[in-house]
Amino acid sequence: MDHRLAPEHAQLRRTVEEFARDEVAPVIGDFYERDAFPYEIVAKMGRMGLFGLPFPEEYGGMGGDYFALCLALEELARVDSSVAITLEAGVSLGAMPIHRFGSEEQKKTWLPRLCSGEALGAFGLTEPGGGSDASATRTTADLVDGAWVVNGTKSFITNSGTDITALATVTAVTGRRPDGRPEISAILVPSDTPGFTVGQKYSKVGWNASDTNELVFTDCRVPEANLVGRRGAGYSQFLRILDEGRIAIAALAVGLAQGCVDESLRYAAEREAFGRTIGGYQAIQFKIADMAARAHTARLAYYDAASRMLADEPFKRQAAIAKLVASNAAMDNARDATQIFGGYGFMNDYPVGRFYRDAKILEIGEGTSEVQRMLIARDLGLPA
């Protein structure tokens, strides 16, 4: 085993690190305060090829792998999680279902725009009454005269209401199985389809510079060919997408955890109290040491899950472990960094104030920490 990154991965990491430091860090606070989507930053990310990292060149991608995406997410989240989640959702939730399960025509039509960052895709899974119980889907799609007629509501959907949102892939009940269970399929709905309505933007605790909305579908008609994958396979498809996405969210969480270490080290070397810099006090040293240990351990966890995924080995348990450990590390480090900064840590002018607000969702989104523990337990052979 070799702990060192391959040269191409190391170069990518450095490139994104420089971009985050030089292009994102100086301006993102203003977007955050205004609850504004950073279109210019996203466009630059698109020109860098970040949205196309794990996709084949024939569809406009960079020909890289999922681990490359994770490295980019970590470096972005060291500075800001809003831009990181925009990339994560755009790739792993917006474009990846089409790449994994879409028809050749769907790939040729949509992937080039999504890979360039010219357009964003959304993934319509969660519903107001569903939450973690995605099998309780109430949105329906009825096949009528060669078209799917979609009706229902999706909630907490990232990248769903921007000026460049082009589509949402929606899970919907398309029938009933012989045993009475719902048949869930995935339907691609372009954003300009009549009956596709974007609800009011949520007022969120964190991720203020990212886009999150409710989506409403009212007699929304799309061609039968907009079925993504096999009919009735939507449930298994989104489980695969979420397994992969948990590795990406873990990488993002590691970035936030590492950003807390970075900011705390800087501040500890500058802030003076009782005649010396606070970095000279053992209480602060031990707190930062614990923060570094958490970030390092979480990083190893997502590296391991990603390597298993790329080797086409089972990775469900490792992805859940990575997401659980990394989101815990992000939350713990954000709390400790805020404590180190004292009153300044409570101010949004400082990155750690935003880190603290952004960390909590990492224990909820793409599967709560409780869901991760459930997945780990089941994979260990414990009763369902």
UniProtKB/TrEMBL annotation:
GO MF entries = acyl-CoA dehydrogenase activity; flavin adenine dinucleotide binding
Source domain of life is Bacteria
UniProt entry keywords in alphabetical sequence: FAD, Flavoprotein, Oxidoreductase
The coenzyme or cofactor needed here is: FAD
Q: Which residue intervals define the domain Acyl-CoA dehydrogenase/oxidase C-terminal in the entry?
A: 232-380
The UniProt entry, under Gene3D superfamilies, shows: Acyl-CoA dehydrogenase/oxidase, N-terminal domain (1.10.540.10), Butyryl-CoA Dehydrogenase, subunit A, domain 2 (2.40.110.10), Butyryl-CoA Dehydrogenase, subunit A, domain 3 (1.20.140.10)
Cited InterPro entries:
Acyl-CoA_DH_CS, Acyl-CoA_Oxase/DH_mid-dom, Acyl-CoA_Oxase/DH_mid-dom_sf, AcylCo_DH-like_C, AcylCo_DH/oxidase_C, AcylCoA_DH/ox_N, AcylCoA_DH/ox_N_sf, AcylCoA_DH/oxidase_NM_dom_sf
Q: Does the keyword Flavoprotein apply?
A: yes
Statement: the UniProt record of this protein carries the keyword Transmembrane: no
The record places domain Acyl-CoA dehydrogenase/oxidase N-terminal at 7-118
Give residue ranges for domain Acyl-CoA oxidase/dehydrogenase middle: 122-220
**SUPFAM superfamilies, per the entry:** Acyl-CoA dehydrogenase C-terminal domain-like (SSF47203), Acyl-CoA dehydrogenase NM domain-like (SSF56645)
Q: Which family does it belong to?
A: Belongs to the acyl-CoA dehydrogenase family.
Name assigned to this protein: Acyl-CoA dehydrogenase
Organism encoding this protein: Marinitenerispora sediminis
